[in-house]
């Protein structure tokens, strides 16, 4: 009774779930807020830098403008990633969000490298930096507060939506806040006669930002190449399935991520003599309970096996139903029983075919004996049982 059962999970009423429309709207809302605030902050920093003669403040303002590019990446990815599945993308477009996360991670890494090189150049430059006016500290402080608030708002939404892309964008906002802290230290250091504090802090923080960018890139690229869940997560899923009624054994459990979803496929070994409908019922129960226990599991493929075929396939050489029936009907000693046969059930077990022959009426002893003899002469047949409808 082996066969693939492809199940698209529908969230039960008590499972925490967010619709595609709500997810897209929330992502668009947080991104638009970020774009607006970044525009305001960048203009304020650039104007403030010119007014206070702070080169660091001007540079940070142009740095904030670069965030607008990442915001547009998020908006575009959100629009594409939340489209319905289609013929060419039957699993949906969630990987677009993953790819956007890689892009944002690369942008974050670029920011880190830029800050590091700028700090290195300033630390070892022979050109003295002009001392900015003290009011520049207020501009830098305002930028820190605004960008940190934007980080917390974006990260809150990212956690609620389980969106790696928004988490990457949130960390981008945090890197901007850190960048503004560097600017603040540089301005303050210049006021107290320690101009070397600015480039030194810049290089240290750039290394931290580069580490965060590397984590984002590694996590997203591992998803793009279909890396499975962590061993402990897979084991938890395995144990949950093993406890379910009707499941005798489990093998070939495979998992992968797509955006905020987990995709899985598994082979379930069940009693080889149950009906197709009961096997389907068991797989339905496994799917719904898995989704209830693990809400991120959205697409589950279940293969029902009557025996463990992970390493060997003992029934692969056996004839199909049509081929077997043709063999039996070709035997003269079976002809006297065919008019009484209502149905024949086949069980492919341990390299043999077990037959259940359901009869509409009681046969003669000779007809029954001849049919059994014909079955015994076919080497790949196992047991043969006869059932009578009147006795059911």
UniProtKB/TrEMBL annotation:
This is Cation diffusion facilitator family transporter. Residues 1-23 are annotated as: Disordered. The lineage of its organism: Bacteria, Pseudomonadati, Pseudomonadota, Gammaproteobacteria, Thiotrichales. It holds the Pfam family Cation_efflux. It is found in: Membrane. The chain crosses the membrane at residues 99-120, 175-194, 200-218. It is a multi-pass membrane protein. SUPFAM superfamilies: Cation efflux protein cytoplasmic domain-like, Cation efflux protein transmembrane domain-like.
């Amino acid at each position: 009774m082996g066969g693939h059962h492809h199940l698209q999970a529908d969230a039960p009423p008590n499972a925490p779930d967010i619709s595609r429309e709500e997810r897209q709207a929330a992502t668009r809302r947080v991104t638009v807020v970020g774009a607006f605030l970044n525009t305001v902050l960048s203009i304020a920093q650039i104007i403030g830098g010119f007014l206070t003669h702070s080169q660091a403040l001007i540079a940070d303002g142009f740095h904030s403008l670069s965030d607008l590019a990442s915001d547009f990446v998020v908006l575009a990815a959100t629009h594409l990633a939340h489209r319905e599945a289609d013929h060419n993308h039957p699993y949906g477009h969630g990987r677009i969000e993953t790819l956007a996360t890689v892009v944002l991670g690369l942008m974050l890494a670029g920011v880190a490298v830029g800050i590091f090189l700028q700090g290195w150049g300033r630390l070892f430059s022979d050109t003295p930096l002009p001392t900015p006016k003290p009011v520049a500290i207020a501009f830098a402080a305002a930028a820190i507060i605004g960008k940190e608030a934007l980080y917390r708002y974006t990260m809150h939404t990212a956690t609620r939506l389980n969106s790696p892309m928004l988490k990457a964008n949130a960390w981008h906002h945090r890197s901007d806040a850190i960048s503004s802290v560097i600017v603040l230290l540089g301005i303050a250091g210049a006021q107290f006669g320690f101009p070397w504090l600015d480039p030194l802090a810049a290089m240290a923080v750039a290394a931290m930002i580069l580490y965060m960018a590397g984590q984002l890139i590694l996590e997203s690229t591992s998803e793009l190449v279909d890396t499975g869940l962590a061993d402990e997560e897979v084991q938890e899923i395995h144990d949950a399935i093993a406890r379910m009624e009707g499941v005798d054994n489990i093998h070939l459990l495979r998992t992968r991520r797509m955006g905020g979803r987990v995709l899985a496929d598994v082979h379930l070994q069940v009693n080889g003599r149950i009906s197709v409908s009961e096997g389907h019922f068991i797989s339905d129960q496994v799917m719904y309970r898995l989704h209830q226990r693990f809400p991120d599991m959205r697409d589950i493929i279940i293969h029902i096996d009557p025996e463990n075929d992970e390493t060997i396939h003992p029934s692969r050489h056996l004839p199909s139903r049509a081929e077997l029936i043709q063999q039996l009907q070709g035997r003269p000693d079976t002809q006297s029983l065919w008019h009484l046969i209502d149905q024949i059930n086949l069980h492919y077990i341990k390299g043999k075919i077990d037959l259940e022959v359901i009869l509409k009426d009681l046969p003669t002893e000779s007809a029954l004996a001849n049919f059994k003899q014909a079955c015994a002469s076919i080497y790949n047949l196992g047991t043969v049982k006869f059932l009578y409808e009147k006795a059911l």
